[in-house]
Amino acid sequence: MADLFTEAAKKRQAESGPLAVRLRPSTLDELVGQQHVLGAGSALRLAIEHDRPPSMILFGPPGTGKTTIARIVAERTGAAFEELSAVSARVDDVRAVISRAGDRLGGNGLRTILFIDEIHRFNKAQQDSVLHAVEDGLVTLIGATTENPYFEVNSALLSRCTVIELTALTEDELVEILARGATVLETEPKRDVLALMAKRAGGDARAALQILELAQATASAAGVPISESHVLDASRKRPLLYDRKGDQHYDFASAFIKSMRGGDVDAAVYYLAAMLEAGEDPRFIARRMVILASEDIGNADPNALVVAVAAAQALEHVGLPEAQLNLAQAAIYLASAPKSNASAVAIWEARRDVREYGNARPPAMLRSTGHKAGAKARGHGEGYAYPHDDPAGFELSYLPEELRGRRYYRPAGAGEEPTDGGTDR
Q1: The pTM is what?
Q2: Cβ(207)–Cβ(239) under 8 Å?
Protein backbone atom coordinates (compact mmCIF):
# COMPACT_ATOMS: atom_id res chain seq x y z
CA MET A 1 0.00 0.00 0.00
CA ALA A 2 2.83 2.37 0.90
CA ASP A 3 4.45 1.75 -2.49
CA LEU A 4 1.19 2.61 -4.25
CA PHE A 5 0.94 5.92 -2.41
CA THR A 6 4.61 6.62 -3.13
CA GLU A 7 4.15 6.04 -6.85
CA ALA A 8 1.01 8.19 -6.89
CA ALA A 9 2.84 10.99 -5.10
CA LYS A 10 5.68 10.84 -7.63
CA LYS A 11 3.22 11.02 -10.51
CA ARG A 12 1.43 14.04 -9.07
CA GLN A 13 4.73 15.73 -8.29
CA ALA A 14 5.77 15.32 -11.90
CA GLU A 15 2.51 16.94 -12.99
CA SER A 16 2.16 19.76 -10.46
CA GLY A 17 5.55 20.17 -8.78
CA PRO A 18 7.98 23.05 -9.38
CA LEU A 19 8.87 23.63 -13.01
CA ALA A 20 12.41 22.37 -12.40
CA VAL A 21 10.97 19.01 -11.29
CA ARG A 22 8.52 18.78 -14.18
CA LEU A 23 11.24 19.62 -16.67
CA ARG A 24 13.91 17.28 -15.27
CA PRO A 25 15.57 15.36 -18.16
CA SER A 26 15.17 11.61 -18.17
CA THR A 27 17.91 10.78 -20.72
CA LEU A 28 21.44 11.93 -21.42
CA ASP A 29 20.32 13.33 -24.78
CA GLU A 30 17.85 15.64 -23.00
CA LEU A 31 20.49 16.90 -20.56
CA VAL A 32 21.74 20.41 -21.33
CA GLY A 33 25.34 21.26 -20.47
CA GLN A 34 28.20 19.27 -18.92
CA GLN A 35 29.39 18.14 -22.33
CA HIS A 36 32.97 18.15 -21.05
CA VAL A 37 32.16 14.99 -19.06
CA LEU A 38 29.03 13.64 -20.79
CA GLY A 39 29.58 14.51 -24.43
CA ALA A 40 29.35 11.87 -27.14
CA GLY A 41 32.19 9.39 -26.82
CA SER A 42 33.25 10.54 -23.37
CA ALA A 43 34.39 7.88 -20.89
CA LEU A 44 31.57 8.55 -18.43
CA ARG A 45 28.86 8.54 -21.07
CA LEU A 46 30.12 5.28 -22.55
CA ALA A 47 30.25 3.73 -19.07
CA ILE A 48 26.63 4.71 -18.44
CA GLU A 49 25.43 3.59 -21.86
CA HIS A 50 27.17 0.23 -21.47
CA ASP A 51 25.60 -0.33 -18.05
CA ARG A 52 28.82 -0.09 -16.06
CA PRO A 53 28.66 3.25 -14.27
CA PRO A 54 31.32 3.70 -11.58
CA SER A 55 30.68 4.98 -8.09
CA MET A 56 31.13 8.70 -8.43
CA ILE A 57 31.00 12.01 -6.63
CA LEU A 58 29.44 14.82 -8.63
CA PHE A 59 30.90 18.12 -7.54
CA GLY A 60 29.71 21.51 -8.75
CA PRO A 61 27.58 24.60 -8.13
CA PRO A 62 23.82 24.35 -7.43
CA GLY A 63 21.53 23.70 -10.37
CA THR A 64 24.10 22.06 -12.64
CA GLY A 65 22.43 18.65 -12.87
CA LYS A 66 23.90 16.52 -10.10
CA THR A 67 20.62 14.93 -8.99
CA THR A 68 19.39 14.72 -12.57
CA ILE A 69 22.49 12.81 -13.69
CA ALA A 70 22.10 10.37 -10.79
CA ARG A 71 18.49 9.67 -11.77
CA ILE A 72 19.41 9.28 -15.43
CA VAL A 73 22.10 6.75 -14.50
CA ALA A 74 19.56 4.75 -12.48
CA GLU A 75 17.00 4.89 -15.28
CA ARG A 76 19.52 3.99 -17.99
CA THR A 77 20.95 1.03 -16.10
CA GLY A 78 17.64 -0.26 -14.74
CA ALA A 79 18.97 -0.21 -11.18
CA ALA A 80 16.89 0.49 -8.08
CA PHE A 81 17.33 4.08 -6.97
CA GLU A 82 17.71 4.90 -3.27
CA GLU A 83 18.12 8.52 -2.21
CA LEU A 84 19.41 9.89 1.09
CA SER A 85 20.11 13.43 2.21
CA ALA A 86 23.24 13.78 4.29
CA VAL A 87 21.53 16.58 6.20
CA SER A 88 19.00 14.22 7.79
CA ALA A 89 20.25 10.66 7.20
CA ARG A 90 21.73 8.59 10.03
CA VAL A 91 24.07 5.62 9.96
CA ASP A 92 21.02 3.36 10.50
CA ASP A 93 19.45 4.78 7.32
CA VAL A 94 22.56 3.90 5.34
CA ARG A 95 22.62 0.38 6.76
CA ALA A 96 18.95 -0.09 5.87
CA VAL A 97 19.67 0.86 2.26
CA ILE A 98 22.60 -1.55 2.14
CA SER A 99 20.43 -4.31 3.57
CA ARG A 100 17.76 -3.75 0.92
CA ALA A 101 20.46 -3.66 -1.75
CA GLY A 102 21.69 -7.08 -0.61
CA ASP A 103 18.15 -8.49 -0.72
CA ARG A 104 17.60 -7.18 -4.25
CA LEU A 105 20.89 -8.47 -5.57
CA GLY A 106 20.42 -11.86 -3.96
CA GLY A 107 16.72 -12.16 -4.80
CA ASN A 108 16.53 -11.11 -8.45
CA GLY A 109 19.96 -9.74 -9.40
CA LEU A 110 18.74 -6.13 -9.30
CA ARG A 111 21.50 -3.64 -8.53
CA THR A 112 21.10 -0.55 -6.38
CA ILE A 113 22.25 3.01 -6.92
CA LEU A 114 22.57 4.95 -3.67
CA PHE A 115 22.36 8.69 -4.22
CA ILE A 116 23.57 10.80 -1.28
CA ASP A 117 22.84 14.50 -1.63
CA GLU A 118 25.17 16.95 0.18
CA ILE A 119 27.60 14.10 0.83
CA HIS A 120 30.15 16.56 2.25
CA ARG A 121 27.90 16.80 5.33
CA PHE A 122 28.39 13.12 6.14
CA ASN A 123 30.69 12.70 9.12
CA LYS A 124 33.45 10.08 9.19
CA ALA A 125 31.24 7.39 10.79
CA GLN A 126 28.54 7.91 8.16
CA GLN A 127 31.07 7.79 5.33
CA ASP A 128 32.65 4.66 6.77
CA SER A 129 29.22 2.98 6.98
CA VAL A 130 28.90 2.96 3.18
CA LEU A 131 32.57 2.26 2.42
CA HIS A 132 32.53 -1.55 2.29
CA ALA A 133 29.28 -1.71 0.30
CA VAL A 134 30.88 0.51 -2.34
CA GLU A 135 34.13 -1.46 -2.29
CA ASP A 136 32.29 -4.79 -2.69
CA GLY A 137 30.06 -3.45 -5.47
CA LEU A 138 26.90 -4.04 -3.44
CA VAL A 139 25.82 -0.48 -4.20
CA THR A 140 26.90 2.06 -6.78
CA LEU A 141 27.35 5.28 -4.89
CA ILE A 142 26.58 8.62 -6.47
CA GLY A 143 27.34 11.50 -4.13
CA ALA A 144 26.47 15.10 -4.85
CA THR A 145 28.19 18.08 -3.29
CA THR A 146 28.68 21.78 -3.85
CA GLU A 147 31.93 21.62 -1.84
CA ASN A 148 35.25 20.34 -3.12
CA PRO A 149 35.16 16.66 -2.06
CA TYR A 150 38.92 16.60 -1.56
CA PHE A 151 38.34 18.88 1.43
CA GLU A 152 35.30 17.11 2.90
CA VAL A 153 35.20 13.43 1.88
CA ASN A 154 37.63 11.01 3.49
CA SER A 155 40.41 9.56 1.34
CA ALA A 156 39.24 5.95 1.68
CA LEU A 157 35.87 6.74 0.10
CA LEU A 158 37.39 9.08 -2.47
CA SER A 159 39.75 6.36 -3.66
CA ARG A 160 36.75 4.16 -4.50
CA CYS A 161 34.90 6.87 -6.44
CA THR A 162 35.42 8.85 -9.60
CA VAL A 163 35.27 12.58 -8.86
CA ILE A 164 33.45 14.44 -11.62
CA GLU A 165 33.41 18.23 -11.60
CA LEU A 166 30.36 19.90 -13.10
CA THR A 167 30.44 23.53 -14.18
CA ALA A 168 27.92 26.36 -13.98
CA LEU A 169 25.73 26.44 -17.08
CA THR A 170 26.42 29.08 -19.69
CA GLU A 171 23.79 31.70 -20.50
CA ASP A 172 23.14 30.06 -23.88
CA GLU A 173 22.55 26.71 -22.17
CA LEU A 174 20.18 28.35 -19.68
CA VAL A 175 18.26 30.03 -22.49
CA GLU A 176 17.76 26.60 -24.07
CA ILE A 177 16.41 25.23 -20.77
CA LEU A 178 14.21 28.30 -20.27
CA ALA A 179 12.75 27.90 -23.76
CA ARG A 180 11.71 24.36 -22.82
CA GLY A 181 10.20 25.67 -19.60
CA ALA A 182 8.28 28.37 -21.46
CA THR A 183 6.77 25.70 -23.71
CA VAL A 184 5.56 23.75 -20.67
CA LEU A 185 4.05 26.94 -19.23
CA GLU A 186 2.51 27.73 -22.61
CA THR A 187 4.13 31.14 -22.86
CA GLU A 188 6.49 32.72 -25.38
CA PRO A 189 8.84 35.28 -23.78
CA LYS A 190 11.03 37.30 -26.10
CA ARG A 191 14.59 36.14 -26.60
CA ASP A 192 16.04 39.12 -24.72
CA VAL A 193 13.74 38.39 -21.76
CA LEU A 194 14.97 34.78 -21.66
CA ALA A 195 18.55 36.07 -21.87
CA LEU A 196 17.94 38.34 -18.87
CA MET A 197 16.55 35.38 -16.90
CA ALA A 198 19.65 33.38 -17.78
CA LYS A 199 21.93 36.21 -16.73
CA ARG A 200 20.15 36.65 -13.41
CA ALA A 201 20.28 32.91 -12.66
CA GLY A 202 24.06 32.80 -12.26
CA GLY A 203 24.60 29.47 -14.04
CA ASP A 204 21.90 27.69 -11.99
CA ALA A 205 19.20 25.93 -14.05
CA ARG A 206 16.92 25.52 -11.03
CA ALA A 207 17.15 29.24 -10.25
CA ALA A 208 16.48 30.11 -13.90
CA LEU A 209 13.30 28.03 -13.99
CA GLN A 210 12.15 29.50 -10.67
CA ILE A 211 12.57 33.00 -12.13
CA LEU A 212 10.61 31.97 -15.22
CA GLU A 213 7.82 30.41 -13.20
CA LEU A 214 7.43 33.39 -10.87
CA ALA A 215 7.70 35.94 -13.67
CA GLN A 216 5.07 34.06 -15.67
CA ALA A 217 2.71 33.94 -12.68
CA THR A 218 3.09 37.68 -12.11
CA ALA A 219 2.63 38.54 -15.78
CA SER A 220 -0.34 36.18 -16.10
CA ALA A 221 -2.07 37.79 -13.12
CA ALA A 222 -1.73 41.17 -14.83
CA GLY A 223 -2.84 39.75 -18.19
CA VAL A 224 0.35 40.85 -19.99
CA PRO A 225 3.33 39.10 -21.57
CA ILE A 226 6.46 38.55 -19.49
CA SER A 227 8.65 41.66 -19.52
CA GLU A 228 12.05 42.59 -18.13
CA SER A 229 10.38 44.21 -15.11
CA HIS A 230 8.75 40.88 -14.23
CA VAL A 231 12.11 39.14 -14.47
CA LEU A 232 13.83 41.72 -12.28
CA ASP A 233 11.02 41.48 -9.74
CA ALA A 234 11.29 37.69 -9.69
CA SER A 235 15.07 37.76 -9.22
CA ARG A 236 15.78 40.58 -6.83
CA LYS A 237 19.28 39.38 -5.96
CA ARG A 238 21.48 37.33 -8.23
CA PRO A 239 22.76 34.20 -6.45
CA LEU A 240 26.40 34.31 -5.40
CA LEU A 241 28.47 31.18 -5.98
CA TYR A 242 30.83 31.24 -3.01
CA ASP A 243 31.97 29.00 -0.20
CA ARG A 244 34.05 30.28 2.66
CA LYS A 245 36.14 27.12 3.06
CA GLY A 246 36.37 25.58 -0.38
CA ASP A 247 37.31 26.38 -3.96
CA GLN A 248 35.49 29.70 -4.29
CA HIS A 249 37.24 31.02 -1.18
CA TYR A 250 40.66 30.16 -2.58
CA ASP A 251 39.85 31.16 -6.18
CA PHE A 252 38.58 34.62 -5.29
CA ALA A 253 41.41 35.25 -2.82
CA SER A 254 43.91 34.19 -5.49
CA ALA A 255 42.29 36.47 -8.09
CA PHE A 256 42.31 39.37 -5.60
CA ILE A 257 46.00 38.95 -4.78
CA LYS A 258 47.08 38.46 -8.40
CA SER A 259 45.08 41.52 -9.51
CA MET A 260 46.86 43.72 -6.94
CA ARG A 261 50.22 42.16 -7.84
CA GLY A 262 49.55 42.82 -11.53
CA GLY A 263 48.47 46.41 -10.95
CA ASP A 264 44.85 45.98 -12.11
CA VAL A 265 43.04 48.36 -9.75
CA ASP A 266 39.54 47.71 -11.06
CA ALA A 267 39.89 43.92 -10.85
CA ALA A 268 41.26 44.20 -7.31
CA VAL A 269 38.27 46.29 -6.21
CA TYR A 270 35.85 43.92 -7.92
CA TYR A 271 37.21 40.78 -6.25
CA LEU A 272 37.27 42.61 -2.92
CA ALA A 273 33.59 43.50 -3.41
CA ALA A 274 32.74 39.94 -4.45
CA MET A 275 34.33 38.50 -1.33
CA LEU A 276 32.66 41.02 0.97
CA GLU A 277 29.24 40.47 -0.63
CA ALA A 278 29.64 36.72 -0.20
CA GLY A 279 30.40 37.07 3.51
CA GLU A 280 34.14 36.42 3.43
CA ASP A 281 35.94 37.09 6.72
CA PRO A 282 37.29 40.66 6.29
CA ARG A 283 40.20 39.87 8.62
CA PHE A 284 41.34 37.24 6.12
CA ILE A 285 41.25 39.88 3.37
CA ALA A 286 43.20 42.36 5.49
CA ARG A 287 45.85 39.76 6.35
CA ARG A 288 46.38 38.97 2.68
CA MET A 289 46.92 42.67 1.92
CA VAL A 290 49.47 43.02 4.74
CA ILE A 291 51.38 40.03 3.34
CA LEU A 292 51.25 41.36 -0.22
CA ALA A 293 52.56 44.76 0.88
CA SER A 294 55.91 43.15 1.78
CA GLU A 295 55.93 40.21 -0.64
CA ASP A 296 55.12 42.08 -3.85
CA ILE A 297 55.86 45.75 -3.12
CA GLY A 298 58.47 45.83 -0.38
CA ASN A 299 60.88 48.74 -0.49
CA ALA A 300 59.65 49.92 -3.87
CA ASP A 301 57.06 51.72 -1.71
CA PRO A 302 57.67 51.28 2.02
CA ASN A 303 54.39 53.07 2.75
CA ALA A 304 52.47 50.13 1.28
CA LEU A 305 53.00 48.14 4.46
CA VAL A 306 51.94 51.14 6.53
CA VAL A 307 48.73 51.49 4.52
CA ALA A 308 47.92 47.77 4.69
CA VAL A 309 48.49 47.57 8.44
CA ALA A 310 46.44 50.73 8.94
CA ALA A 311 43.56 49.18 7.00
CA ALA A 312 43.74 46.04 9.15
CA GLN A 313 43.68 48.17 12.30
CA ALA A 314 40.84 50.32 10.96
CA LEU A 315 38.83 47.16 10.35
CA GLU A 316 39.17 46.24 14.03
CA HIS A 317 38.18 49.73 15.18
CA VAL A 318 35.36 50.43 12.71
CA GLY A 319 34.03 47.07 11.54
CA LEU A 320 31.88 46.41 8.51
CA PRO A 321 30.16 47.83 6.57
CA GLU A 322 32.12 51.09 7.01
CA ALA A 323 35.51 49.34 6.99
CA GLN A 324 34.91 48.39 3.36
CA LEU A 325 36.11 51.93 2.63
CA ASN A 326 39.41 51.31 4.41
CA LEU A 327 39.89 47.94 2.70
CA ALA A 328 39.10 49.44 -0.72
CA GLN A 329 41.52 52.34 -0.18
CA ALA A 330 44.28 49.93 0.78
CA ALA A 331 43.56 47.57 -2.13
CA ILE A 332 43.69 50.47 -4.59
CA TYR A 333 46.94 51.77 -3.07
CA LEU A 334 48.57 48.33 -3.21
CA ALA A 335 47.45 47.69 -6.78
CA SER A 336 48.75 51.10 -7.88
CA ALA A 337 52.08 50.91 -6.05
CA PRO A 338 55.36 50.07 -7.83
CA LYS A 339 56.21 46.40 -7.41
CA SER A 340 59.28 44.56 -6.18
CA ASN A 341 59.60 41.12 -4.62
CA ALA A 342 63.28 41.66 -3.73
CA SER A 343 62.61 41.61 0.02
CA ALA A 344 60.63 38.39 -0.27
CA VAL A 345 63.25 36.71 -2.45
CA ALA A 346 65.96 37.77 0.01
CA ILE A 347 64.41 36.02 3.02
CA TRP A 348 63.37 32.97 0.98
CA GLU A 349 66.91 32.46 -0.34
CA ALA A 350 68.54 33.15 3.02
CA ARG A 351 66.31 30.58 4.73
CA ARG A 352 67.07 28.09 2.00
CA ASP A 353 70.79 28.51 2.69
CA VAL A 354 70.20 28.07 6.43
CA ARG A 355 68.36 24.81 5.73
CA GLU A 356 71.06 23.65 3.32
CA TYR A 357 74.20 24.69 5.20
CA GLY A 358 72.94 24.97 8.77
CA ASN A 359 73.15 28.13 10.86
CA ALA A 360 76.75 29.00 9.99
CA ARG A 361 78.50 30.79 12.86
CA PRO A 362 79.08 34.54 12.54
CA PRO A 363 82.71 35.58 11.85
CA ALA A 364 84.85 36.15 14.95
CA MET A 365 84.73 39.95 14.63
CA LEU A 366 80.92 39.87 15.08
CA ARG A 367 80.79 37.55 18.07
CA SER A 368 79.90 38.92 21.48
CA THR A 369 82.74 40.16 23.67
CA GLY A 370 80.80 40.95 26.82
CA HIS A 371 78.64 37.98 27.72
CA LYS A 372 81.40 35.80 29.20
CA ALA A 373 85.00 36.03 30.35
CA GLY A 374 87.80 35.25 27.92
CA ALA A 375 85.81 36.12 24.80
CA LYS A 376 88.33 38.69 23.61
CA ALA A 377 91.20 36.31 24.29
CA ARG A 378 89.60 33.88 21.86
CA GLY A 379 89.49 36.55 19.16
CA HIS A 380 85.91 37.69 19.57
CA GLY A 381 85.48 41.19 18.18
CA GLU A 382 88.90 41.28 16.53
CA GLY A 383 88.85 43.20 13.27
CA TYR A 384 85.46 44.82 13.86
CA ALA A 385 85.14 48.47 12.80
CA TYR A 386 82.39 50.55 14.43
CA PRO A 387 80.74 52.15 11.35
CA HIS A 388 79.81 55.39 13.13
CA ASP A 389 83.46 56.04 13.94
CA ASP A 390 85.19 54.25 11.10
CA PRO A 391 83.68 54.27 7.55
CA ALA A 392 85.62 51.07 6.88
CA GLY A 393 82.87 49.33 8.86
CA PHE A 394 80.59 49.81 5.87
CA GLU A 395 83.00 47.95 3.59
CA LEU A 396 83.30 44.77 5.65
CA SER A 397 81.45 41.54 4.81
CA TYR A 398 79.35 40.45 7.76
CA LEU A 399 78.24 37.08 6.40
CA PRO A 400 79.68 33.82 7.79
CA GLU A 401 82.92 32.93 6.01
CA GLU A 402 81.43 30.00 4.07
CA LEU A 403 78.72 32.29 2.67
CA ARG A 404 80.93 35.23 1.68
CA GLY A 405 79.79 36.71 -1.63
CA ARG A 406 76.18 35.62 -1.28
CA ARG A 407 73.65 38.24 -2.43
CA TYR A 408 70.17 37.80 -1.03
CA TYR A 409 68.78 41.28 -1.52
CA ARG A 410 68.86 42.29 -5.17
CA PRO A 411 66.79 45.48 -5.56
CA ALA A 412 64.53 45.74 -8.57
CA GLY A 413 65.09 49.47 -8.87
CA ALA A 414 61.32 50.09 -8.91
CA GLY A 415 59.82 53.07 -7.12
CA GLU A 416 61.86 54.02 -4.06
CA GLU A 417 63.93 50.84 -4.04
CA PRO A 418 67.63 51.55 -4.66
CA THR A 419 69.45 49.98 -7.57
CA ASP A 420 72.83 49.49 -5.90
CA GLY A 421 72.02 46.63 -3.56
CA GLY A 422 74.32 44.15 -5.21
CA THR A 423 74.55 41.91 -8.22
CA ASP A 424 73.27 38.44 -8.93
CA ARG A 425 75.32 35.57 -7.61
Answers
A1: 0.57
A2: yes
Q: List the domain range (segments joined by +) for residue 158.
A: 34-165
Q: Which of 76-80, 176-180, 238-242, 257-261 has the lowest mean pLDDT?
A: 238-242
Both 224 and 268 in one domain: the answer is no
Give the residue from 285, 306, 297 showing the smallest Cα distance to 336.
Answer: 297
Sign of the CA dihedral with 408 first, then 414, 416, and 422 last: positive
Question: Is the pLDDT score of 11 beyond 60?
Answer: no
Domain-embedded: residue 3: no
Give the DSSP per-residue string, 332-378: HHHHHS----HHHHHHHHHHHHHHHH--PPPPGGGS-SSSSTTTGGG
The total number of structural domains in the chain stands at 3
Instruction: Judge whether 311 and 286 are in contact, CB under 8 Å.
Output: yes
Residue 357 forms part of a structural domain: no
Compute the distance between CA of residue 192 and CA of residue 373 in angstroms, rounded to an integer.
88
For 236-252, write each residue's pLDDT tens digit.
755 555 555 556 778 88
- Give me the helix-helix angle, 205-222 and 171-184, nearest 10°: 40
Sign of CA dihedral 231, 232, 233, 238: positive
* 360 lies in some domain: no
Is the per-residue pLDDT at 7 higher than 80? no
Name which of 246, 323, 317 is nearest 289 in CA terms.
323
- Structural domain includes residue 423: no
